Backbone:
């Protein structure tokens, strides 16, 4: 069964610290993997999209990694800011039926 | 604003009421989607419309009825809902159906509470 598991479920860090969010998936065949950020009261917004051949992709203070062999991805946030407080959702695209498989998200809270 | 607008943002209704959620996009996209988002659960795809035609109904109960009069507008008509239907309903659009290459643009959602 195609699944996307994210960990931790929630996380609290101090402003200025770094953190890493994890995404493990069993989706096959794989097409691409995306990370979305969802602020409270808003819809998800795309941060990065990674294809099979990409290992690392950065978007400002956000760096996503992909290991297609172990079917794992991570989202690293550097020098966190209060505005990073949000839910981060990992989404994997399944190639055969062209479906998106969503993770349940990691809720990040950045404290001052 | 993302270019996808949802109204109302909040809705409280009784189980016997009839109400509708509205979604509008002016991005020139041809595919529109309804998703249900419940706390601590992955987004659940409900319906997909591609060029105004419904292409996917993900076994959604008939108390939810979608309508897509044109490529820019999408409605979700609600009737005789249950308390477990309380959730955030997200509308999204993409250039066309086909999740592989297309990035979804989401609206801010309609928070529904069924009493």
Residues:
């Amino acid at each position: 069964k195609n699944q996307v598991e994210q960990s931790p479920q929630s996380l609290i860090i101090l402003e200025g610290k770094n953190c890493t969010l994890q995404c493990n998936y069993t989706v096959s065949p794989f097409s691409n993997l995306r990370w979305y950020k969802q602020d409270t009261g808003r819809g998800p917004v795309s941060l990065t999209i990674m294809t099979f051949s990409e290992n690392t992709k950065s978007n400002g203070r956000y760096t996503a990694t992909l290991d297609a062999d172990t079917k794992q991805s991570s989202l690293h946030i550097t020098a966190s800011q209060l505005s990073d407080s949000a839910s981060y959702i990992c989404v994997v695209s399944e190639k055969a039926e062209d479906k998106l498989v969503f993770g349940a998200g990691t809720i990040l809270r950045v404290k001052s | 604003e993302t270019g996808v607008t949802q109204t109302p943002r909040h809705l409280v209704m009784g189980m016997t009421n009839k109400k509708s959620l509205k979604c509008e996009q002016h991005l020139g996209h041809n595919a529109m989607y309804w998703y249900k988002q419940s706390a601590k659960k992955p987004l659940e795809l409900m319906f997909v419309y591609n060029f105004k035609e419904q292409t996917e109904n993900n076994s959604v109960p008939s108390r939810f009825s979608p309508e897509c009069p044109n490529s820019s507008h999408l409605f979700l008509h609600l009737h005789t809902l249950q308390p477990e239907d309380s959730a955030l309903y997200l509308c999204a659009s993409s250039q066309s159906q086909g999740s592989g290459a297309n990035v979804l643009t989401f609206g801010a959602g309609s928070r529904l509470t069924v009493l």
